[in-house]
Write a structure and sequence with these properties.
Strand content: 5-15%
Structural class: mainly alpha
Distance between the termini: 18 Å
Helix content: 40-55%
Number of helices: 5
Largest sheet: 2 strands, parallel
């Protein structure tokens, strides 16, 4: 609700993406590309995407993005010139012993190169 309410306040258009239930509520690159393409079509030229919001760990599922999924999101953001709004407020609420939290900042720093200099992260 925070992000959608903020969009309404600033007369911004929200493009939704869906998580993959079969992949433990994770993100898929194909879904991000699909949602961006459909969002651009439905906005009929009135929308120029500026940011992607990622909540990690997810609420209410508790799903934690793997390091590879975070890299994929960062590459997607770089490709489409999007600011990454990484909401990581639940980072201490990881209850699955097989899951490990990785911050977007640490993964971006680890990636190095142009992407680490050009992707904006908030």
């Amino acid at each position: 609700p925070l992000y959608s309410a903020s969009n309404t306040e600033y007369n911004a258009h929200q493009i939704n993406y869906f998580l993959s239930e079969k992949d433990h509520w994770s993100l898929e690159q194909e879904e991000l590309e699909r949602s961006l393409e459909e969002g651009l079509k439905s906005a009929a030229g009135m929308c120029l995407p500026r940011a992607i919001v990622i909540i990690n760990p997810g609420n209410p599922t508790g799903a934690v993005l793997t390091k590879d999924k975070i890299k994929m999101v960062l590459q997607f953001a770089h490709k489409h010139n999007l600011v990454v709004l990484a909401d990581e407020v639940y980072q201490h609420n990881v209850y699955d012993p097989e899951s490990k939290f990785h911050s977007f900042r640490s993964v971006l720093h680890e990636m190095g190169g142009r992407i680490s200099e050009e992707v904006e992260l908030a």
